[in-house]
Design a protein that fits this description.
Blueprint (H helix, E strand, L loop, with lengths): L1 H25 L2 H16 L9 H25 L28 H7 L4 H12 L4 H8 L3 H18 L8 H16 L2 H7 E10 L11 E2 L1 H15 L4 E7 L2 E8 L2 E10 L4 E7 L17 E3 L1
Parallel strand pairs: 1-6
Antiparallel strand pairs: 1-2, 3-4, 3-7, 4-5, 5-6
Helix pairs in contact: 1-2, 1-3, 2-3, 5-7, 6-7, 8-9
């Protein structure tokens, strides 16, 4: 019994790491949790004296499970209706501290990872985010060190060329998002115009489940029309909360305590340059009901 307890405690100490690997690999909170549970079952079935390094064993199992999962998920992603965004992850809670490398958990960055092959994604994340050595990665993935280095450098070159600018959540960002929210709720077009960059882009993810534009919307005038129509007609009585999602300030929209959408913001310090909106109900299930301690309410 003592050994079983010890084994469970060891696994729980690595759970945040395993979830972090799986979420970045898959872009899905629920799928990542399923992968971690599968990793636990395999760990539980393996005698402890056969595991030299629990961290290496669990990371290897989790990564391989993700790679297997992506083989079947890739076709679904390719046929996804409209822009694909990751499932929103609340990142301000103490329990998520260990999964945060905020610049590498942003929605924009996770979307870029989707353009890498699953193997490139795994090698890049294990090396860049989780600091595994090339010999460790080679053993985990049953590849040569030379092969791993080649995949890593190819992935890094692609990401560096396209990597989005990242800002740490600051008081200025709070003020910017608060001004955006107040302008939306009061119909203050002048303030709304001031907080949006001229080339602001909205990325809407409805997944074919909720009516949303099938492609990104670019330009302040277009976005202003979208936002005014959205909040005037569809979300007049919606409750809105400000929260940190994927390392960036976001608005969480609720009707009768049910999350119906998440608006994730990126900016240049003075204006909002990108808004990523997740409306697909399948991607919001893990937020139901929203923990009242995760966000601060604004009405």
């Amino acid at each position: 019994m003592a050994k079983a307890t010890q084994k469970t405690e060891i696994f729980e100490s690595y759970r945040p790491l395993l979830f972090s690997i799986a979420y970045r690999m898959l872009g899905s909170v629920m799928e990542a949790e399923d992968i971690v549970q599968d990793a636990y079952l395999r760990y539980e079935a393996t005698p402890l004296d056969r595991i030299q390094s629990p961290k290496a064993f669990l990371s290897t199992v989790t990564t391989r499970l993700c790679l297997d999962h992506l083989k079947s998920a890739r076709a679904q992603r390719e046929s996804y209706f409209g822009p694909w965004l990751p499932e929103p992850l609340l990142t301000a809670e103490p329990t998520t501290t260990l999964v945060n490398r905020h610049e590498m958990i942003s929605m924009a960055f996770l979307v870029l990872l989707e353009n890498l092959s699953p193997l490139e994604r795994a090698i890049f994340l294990l090396r860049e985010v989780f600091d595994f050595s090339y010999p460790e990665i080679a053993q985990m993935l049953e590849k040569s060190e030379v092969n791993c280095r080649q995949h890593y450098h190819r992935a890094k070159q692609y990401l560096v060329q396209r990597r989005p600018r990242f800002e740490v959540v600051s008081r200025d960002q709070h003020q910017l998002v608060s001004k955006f929210l107040q302008a939306i709720q009061s119909g203050d077009l002048e303030t709304l115009t001031q907080v949006l960059a001229e080339d602001v882009t909205v990325w809407p993810d409805g997944g074919g489940k909720i009516h949303a534009a099938p492609r990104p919307l670019v330009g302040r005038d277009i976005v202003l029309r979208l936002l005014r129509g959205l909040f005037r007609k569809q979300y007049v009585n919606v409750e809105v909360q400000i929260a940190e999602v994927n390392g960036a300030l976001s608005l969480i929209l609720l009707i009768e305590d049910k999350v119906i959408g998440v608006m994730n913001f990126a900016g240049d310090g003075s204006r909002i340059t990108e808004i990523r909106t997740v409306w697909n109900p399948d991607k919001l299930q893990h937020l139901q009901p929203l923990n009242s301690h995760s966000a601060s309410a604004h009405t």
